[in-house]
């Protein structure tokens, strides 16, 4: 497994920007630039397609809002992403699951430390 790429601004489809990501298997993470909140995280057999298919801005019409999945954020310009290439889709899946486990462990520790600080 390779290491994470650097964080890149998410391109706006209206301005003709392109996602720079592996065409093969790997893991991806999209976050809000200002808050750091994770918007999307996952693994795919084609990371570039997975990132380009995210419903980030969604439809703007009333009809579209009723029948489509709601957008994850209001402005794509507020997002950044990073990727990590893998040699196989199975390797990408295992890596994504391992990273989720590490993230959950870190959150539990943070919550435990916060609880201990409030108890004192």
Describe, in plain words, how this protein is organized in 3D.
The chain has 120 residues and is of the alpha+beta class. The chain has a single domain (8-119), classed as GIY-YIG endonuclease (3-Layer(aba) Sandwich), CATH 3.40.1440. It has helices spanning 47-52, 62-67, 89-119, and strands spanning 8-9, 26-32, 38-44, 79-85. It has a 4-stranded antiparallel beta sheet. A hairpin with a 5-residue loop joins strand 2 (26-32) and strand 3 (38-44). The radius of gyration is 17 Å and the shape is flat.
Tell me the overall shape: flat
Derived structural class: alpha+beta
The largest sheet has its strands arranged as 1-4-2-3
Instruction: Determine the strand fraction and express it as a percent band.
Output: 15-25%
CATH class, named Alpha Beta
How many domains is the backbone divided into?
1
CATH architectural name: 3-Layer(aba) Sandwich
Query: What is the third-level CATH name, the topology?
Result: GIY-YIG endonuclease
**Into which percent range does the helicity of residues fall?**
25-40%
- Calculate the terminal CA-CA distance, rounded to whole Å: 43 Å
Radius of gyration: 17 Å
List the main descriptive attributes of the protein structure presented here.
120 residues; alpha+beta; GIY-YIG endonuclease; four-stranded antiparallel sheet; 4 strands; 36% helix; flat
Sum this structure up briefly.
The N and C termini lie far apart (43 Å). The protein has a four-stranded antiparallel beta sheet. It is 36% helix and 19% strand.
